[in-house]
Design goal:
The chain is of the alpha/beta class. About 30% of the residues lie in helices and about 35% in strands. The chain has helices spanning about 20-30, 55-60, 80-85, 125-140, 155-165, 175-190, 220-230, 250-260, and strands at about 5-15, 35-40, 40-50, 65-75, 90-95, 95-100, 110-115, 145-150, 170-175, 195-200, 210-215, 235-245, 260-270, 270-279.
Length: about 280
């Protein structure tokens, strides 16, 4: 997508924060905006012209008091992969896991090395939550486990599970382009035979049960889908959830416990939270 016609939407955030910009990225990527650039106080969002629906955009933005308006203009001829390259930063977790793209230089090799194809950055925006999810995964018995990576994006977490020895990983994303990106990344990382990718929502989880469920998505989606996660988790299994703020922890724990799950631990990083539940 190097020279297609795009709409550039500049969303003004007041007061501006990187955290709110990331939240809006997560929301708008489902419309589907497929590239983002942060230029304080604006979040610039890009969508193919034929996909642009101003009314849908207004509905999403109306839910946030910090949005002070937006402006849309036509752009063309951008090198989208170059923009992606400039924005993607490698992730190194505890010296054990590295997530990187081919253009990332001088990144040390670790025990688990995950390569991401430089296409579109689905699921690479929440570095704090991704980091905490991988930290907690490293402490879980993953060998021979059946794992579900719900809202997989680029399938970073699913790929790590497979590299840690999971027998089978089911990676699901509601966005078809993200699901296709996940499929390609799994094959590039040579775990394609053990990671099955699919486009859909949490209802697809009910086709099986899992030893480990991973959901690094968004507070509202997690709260809505927790009953499904609980039903799909095997006795003795672990559920890791992230993608929300520290102040959301009590709400998530309350719904999880109401569905028979037990709090096993939680992490915090720069205001973002990650929770581990058991069954």
């Amino acid at each position: 997508m190097n020279s297609q016609e795009y709409i550039e939407v500049s969303v003004r955030i007041a007061p501006f924060s990187e955290e709110m910009a990331e939240v809006l990225m997560a929301e708008l990527s489902e419309l589907p905006y497929d590239s983002f650039v942060t230029e304080e106080p604006f979040l610039k969002c890009y969508i193919q012209r034929e996909e642009y629906r101003p009314q849908d955009l207004k509905v999403v933005l109306s839910g946030y008091d910090c949005v002070a308006g937006f402006n849309a203009v036509m752009v063309e001829g951008k090198n989208w992969n170059r923009n992606w390259e400039l924005s993607f930063q490698p992730i190194v977790v505890d010296g054990v896991v590295t997530v990187k793209a081919p253009f990332n230089k001088d990144v040390p090799r670790t025990r688990y090395n995950i390569w991401i194809d430089p296409n579109m950055a689905f699921g690479t925006g929440y570095h704090h939550t991704t980091y905490m999810m991988m930290q907690r995964m490293l402490a879980l018995p993953m060998r021979d486990a059946y794992v579900c990576d719900m809202g997989c994006g680029t399938a970073i977490l699913g790929i790590l599970a497979a590299k840690m020895g999971a027998r089978k990983v089911f990676a699901v994303d509601i966005d078809a382009v993200a699901a296709h990106s996940a499929w390609g990344n799994c094959r590039w990382n040579k775990v394609g035979t053990r990671v099955e990718t699919a486009c859909g929502d949490a209802s697809l989880m009910q086709m099986g049960t899992y030893d480990v469920i991973l959901a690094n998505i968004h507070r509202n989606i997690i709260l809505e889908d927790l009953p499904t996660y609980a039903r799909s988790l095997r006795r003795g299994g672990r559920l890791l959830v992230s993608g929300f703020y520290d102040e959301d922890v009590n709400a998530v724990v309350s719904v999880a416990e109401a569905n028979g799950l037990t709090l096993c631990g939680k992490s915090s990083r720069e205001g973002w939270a990650c929770i581990e539940f058991g069954k």
